[in-house]
Design goal:
6 helices, 5 strands, alpha/beta, about 45% helix, 5-stranded parallel beta sheet
Length: about 140
């Protein structure tokens, strides 16, 4: 299963997500880390991503055939992450046929109403729970 993890700024969120995916799913998950800047990319690579790249074009190319896309909710909002997400990046994520697991980080004037301010650890655990469901579903359809 190809999982694209997208993050910006210092890559702290992406780093935790990549590490949790690799801990829970190992080689069953091909993790492609796409940073909106080199610092975020490097953080996710150090956390265990299989492949990494930085910027708009790698994002556009890799979300086309992704099974799952994971990142802060800002990856679908142009000019979010303090301007690191371009309109073309947000559009590419939105057009992808992948399942999108969006983490509700209330920053950059994007506030998700009805979502409690959960710790990053709790949100990453939620991502892993959703991935488990997707892996089970994927394995059931592959075996048929």
């Amino acid at each position: 299963m190809k999982i694209v993890v997208i993050d910006g700024q210092g890559g702290g969120l992406g780093k935790q997500v990549v590490s949790a995916i690799k801990t829970n799913f190992g080689s069953k998950a091909e993790v492609v880390a796409i940073g909106t800047n080199a610092v975020a990319t490097q953080a996710m690579l150090k956390a265990g991503a299989d492949i990494s790249a930085t910027g708009e074009n790698p994002l556009k190319v890799n979300v086309k055939d992704a099974d799952v896309i994971i990142g802060p909710i800002g990856i679908v909002i142009a000019n979010s992450l303090f301007g690191e997400v371009t309109a073309k990046m947000a559009k590419a994520v939105g057009k992808s046929h992948a399942k999108r697991l969006l983490i509700p980080v209330n920053l950059c004037s994007n506030i998700v109403i009805g979502v409690n301010n959960l710790s990053l650890n709790v949100m990453v655990n939620g991502v892993i729970g959703e991935l488990e469901k997707l892996f089970n579903s994927h394995e059931n359809t592959q075996g048929s």
